[in-house]
Amino acid sequence: MLLAIFSDVHGNTQVLERALAYFQARGVDGYLQLGDLGQEPLTLLEGLPVRHAFGNWEVSSLPNLSARWRQKVADWPALIEGEGWVASHATPAFPAACNTTQATFDYMNTHHPRWMQLFPSLLHDEQTIWAAFAELEAQDRLVAFHGHTHVQAVQRFWQDNRLVRLSGPKIDLPPGTRTLVGVGSLGVPRDGRHPRCVLFDTAAMQIELLALT
C-alpha cells in the first residue's frame, strides 16, 4: 500500500488541492492527515480514504467548528497505527487519557498543562526525541511519522546509540532500526517555500520525501 502522509495544512486549500492531484497521479492508496488541518480543507478530503490524527489546532478550535464537522473532528484519535509504524501530530508518546480530540480538549480544561507539554517538538526537544524512540522500542515499531515542527526531517537511532539525521529522497526502514519522520508542512513550511509531505510504501517499508513544486 502506498500512503500519502501530510500535516499542518493550516487552512491552505489551494496547496492541498495541488497535493491531492499529485497524490492521485502517483496512484496512492490512502492518506494520513496528521493534524492542524483547518476547517475549510475538510471538504476536500471528504469521501477520500483518509485517516486523521488531531493536532493542537483541532483541540483549541473544537468548540468553534461548524456543527457539520464538530463531532467528526472530536472523534479523531491521537495516534494512527499500522504494522511496524505509528503516526501522530507531535509525538507517539502521548498521554493515554488524551486518546481523542474531545478527550484532549477536556484534559486541557481540567488539568491545564502547557500546550508544549502535550505537543512538544521532535526537532528541538531532546527529552521528547528520546521519549519517542523509547515508545517505538516499547511497541516494537520501526518508524513514527509526525508533523507539528513544519520541518521535514528524518532522525534515526542506531543500535550503537548514535542519533543521525538522514537525507532522501528515498529512505529505507530496515529491521532493527528506529526512525522518526517529520513529514513537514503542506500549508506553512519552515524549511523553504515548497510544501512538504511524504509517501510511504508499507510493503517495501520505504519512505519518499517530497517537496512539491
Distance between the termini: 24 Å
Tell me the count of domains.
1
**Mean pLDDT over the full residue set:** 96
Largest sheet, described in full?
6 strands, mixed
**Remind me, CATH topology?**
Purple Acid Phosphatase, chain A, domain 2
Q: Please, what is the CATH homologous superfamily?
A: Metallo-dependent phosphatases
SSE string, helix = H, strand = E? EHEHEHHEEHHHEEEEEEE
Structural class, from helix and strand content? alpha/beta
What is the alpha-carbon Rg in Å?
16 Å
**Continuous helix count:** 7
Helical percentage: 25-40%
Large-scale geometry: globular
Identify the strand order in the major beta sheet.
3-2-1-11-12-9
What is the class in the CATH system? Alpha Beta
Low-confidence stretches: none
State the oligomer: single chain
Describe the structure.
The protein is of the alpha/beta class. The strands form two sheets. The chain has a six-stranded mixed β-sheet, with no helix packed on it. It has a six-stranded mixed β-sheet with strand order 4-5-6-10-7-8, with helices on one face. The chain has a single domain, classed as Metallo-dependent phosphatases (Purple Acid Phosphatase, chain A, domain 2), CATH 3.60.21.10. 29% of the residues lie in helices and 26% in strands. The chain has helices spanning 13-26, 42-45, 56-61, 67-74, 101-111, 115-118, 126-139; strands at residues 2-6, 30-33, 50-52, 79-82, 85-88, 143-146, 152-157, 163-166, 170-172, 178-183, 196-201, 206-211. It is globular, with a radius of gyration of 16 Å. The mean pLDDT is 96.
